[in-house]
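Hi team,

Filling in the usual template for the complex we talked about on Friday. All components are listed, including any nucleic acid strands or ligand strings, so the model treats them as one assembly.

SUBMITTER: L.P.
PURPOSE: interface mapping
COMPONENTS: two
RESIDUES: 876
SEQUENCES:
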Amino acid sequence: MSKKSWLFFVLLLTVSIALIACSSDDEESSEEGGGEGTAEEGGSDAEDTLVFGRGGDSVALDPIMVTDGESLKVTRNLFETLVEFGRDDTTINPGLAAEHAVSEDGLTYTFNLQEGVTFHDGEPFNAAAVVYNFERWANGTEDKFYYYQSMFGGFSDDEGHVIESVTATDEMTVEFKLKRPQAPFLKNLAMSPFGIASPKALEEMSDDEFGENPVGTGPFKFVEWKRNDRIVIEKYDDYWQEGLPKLDQVIFSSIPENSARLNALMSGDIDLADGINPSDSSQVEANADLQLFERPSMNVGYLGLTTTREPFDDPKVRQAMNYAIDRQAIVDAFFEGSAEVAKNPMPSVISGYNDDIEGYDYDPEKAKELLEEAGLGDGFDMELWAMPVPRPYMPDGQKVAEAIQNNLSAVGINAEIVTYEWATYLEKASAGEADAFLLGWTGDNGDADNFLYVLLDQDNIGSNNYTYYENQELHDLLIEAQSEVNEDTRNQLYMEAQEIILEDAPWVPLAHSTPLLAGDANLMDFVAHPTGSDLLMDVYFK
Amino acid sequence: MLQYIIRRLLQLIPVLLGMTFIVFLIIRAIPGDPAIVILGQQATEEAVAALRETLGLNNPWYVQYFEYLKNLMTGDLGESIRTRTAVNEEIWPYLAATFELSIFAMVIAVFIGVNAGIISAWFRNSWFDYGAMIFALIGVSVPIFWLGLMMQYQFSLQWDWFPTTGRENVRDPVNAITNLYILDTIIQGRFDQTLNVLRHLVMPGVALATIPMAIIARMTRSSMLEVMKSDYIRTARAKGEKMFWIVYKHSLKNAVIPVLTVIGLQTGLLLGGAILTETIFGLPGIGRYIYEAISSRDYPVIQSGILVVAFIFVMINLIVDVLYSIVDPRIRYN
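RESULT (copied from the run log):
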């Protein structure tokens, strides 16, 4: 090709690129008006399709295989459990089992299953299916069925395994025999990881395949999953509860950035958004097209004091820390009021919560006195660990740490703020390397045991008891409560436990946050559940 | 020429090998245990230990590295720890999303950038020149993150011109064939969807194009000014040739080489710059894919993702080098 024709070719290329660019721009601008029109016309679709915008994607859709909230948020609507939590609390209600009975010794649970339930693949739901699922889990491994191991004390070979046997006594009756009473047993069963899956589908698919093609009995069935983008589920026509679900389709759409997600909601691209920044709540409330939802708190954000490190091995110093920190100011400033000030290690929705406890007031003078008594009248130097990532229970660890630093300096304690990448942070904190660290916890099953025993019992030092706090009296109470079947006696035990914890002060409990969601004003009957997984079958558009 | 291309391709091998090694080492140098990240805070020690064993994390690093290389040779990019799916299988949709966005952004950047640069050089010191160069200065400096949110606010919420996030109307999703949605919708004759996809591309495209556009404009301008001072241009003008042709035909031909280099580099950088744009505009692209992998310590995905992006970067540079000789026959490769 000659020089000239090359030049011509390049020019032609430039011009054609220019034209393409121009024409597509033109089309864009001419389409703008029309495009909106179609979106409006598409309004009839919008009435039975809910687009739920959230921060991240799910990991897998087999509920027993996952531990992340984003997965359970979806599987909650695909699978059902033997007993179900209440609409906005963690009380026990009938689920796939229409009725249940507990023997007096608390060792035998009998479930009469709901008639007429089918799996999404058409298979009937019956006692055999329940037994199949429990056998699958009981013979699993920790990296696969984490929650089974954690809630039922291990697997079939383990000493600590609570479940002795699961048998189908007839077509629609299942009997559980326990090795020892487990007070939160029903609450555990109600957790979404224990959703009953279709045995036929499990037989046909590997665990990983099933995680991408889940088959349950829930009000919605799985349609499509585009990773990091969206998950589509649609109404299951043969759902056993008449008239439900009310929506035809739900699309879970991942938009990682909080502000961008709110923008998408305001423009109508999505109908419901979680992870609303507290600072945006007034904007949502002022907008007549939107409504704000508060998720009841099932979490706690706290400042842990490692009780094996000086000077925090002295309870007086730990109490002084509690007096020195102005929690109300922290909640007002960094949770923007969408949190309640914590006085106990667990939130008030959980039964057994001790509301008689007054907690520590903000009283710097008292703090100084206690430090004086501990022989630290001149104050001391410490490291204060700030969380590097936002969590529902701690939206901005860095700023909270700065406020605490400020409070502490007022009583003569010189705190240096340090932080690490998140995984490292957890690793080092659990190794007891921090003096004082910010952390939190979101409850699994809404039971006191899931907070007090898991986070503060000596059995859990090295795992979730990051403060290395040990108290034999507390340990005895918590172990007793684990097998106490009488609800009132059990709550009494937890109330006593909270008093001990208050006295020993291994933590400065800071706040129980109420995560915020926002939705289209026409969205009806949406209830934000404390567990973080919302059942969408009652939801509809006005 | 063919020989040159083959030689360049062979040179890629040590480059890519070096890259795999560096990426491998850097990732492992970062503290934090993937097993803990996967299982979460609640995990017991035994569970973590068991998972480490299954993932092969207990092997010495060189065993892990050679294992990885061996698999790479057979075209196996590894399996995602998080999703337990082969990276080969799941990477394409993300790549396609980023390709589409980058091409769209590059078309905007090149078209506007080159022309703005040319006109600025042509009418040097005019109001257009000053305006364009101030604009370009702002363009290089503006944080994409901020720009993206502002665009969403103005063009979506205030004026309702474009959708805020995503690649498509989620209520009427595109039936993916190649995962290049513009292509897919055209193949299926769904031109309404093509328009919709384009509308979704405009804001992230412009946000992503801003920096390269500004850089290209500045480079074109200075390169054009240089060329337009030369003797042959004066001759052309003396000949009475129309100014338009002098600029677009005679000058551009010689001025375009450095511009091409910049375009090549910027296209490669776009792949990396896409991560911010993809986060703000909720696009499931390669940047997001790697970002999510980093936060969950998904080693195979990080390694392979970076490797693929690096490979594309190197390939783009190769293409640019080849383009030189096409645009300017004086450049020959032997």
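MY TAKE: The two ends of chain B are 7 Å apart (CA to CA). Residues 170 and 271 of chain B are 25 Å apart (CA to CA).

Thanks, L.
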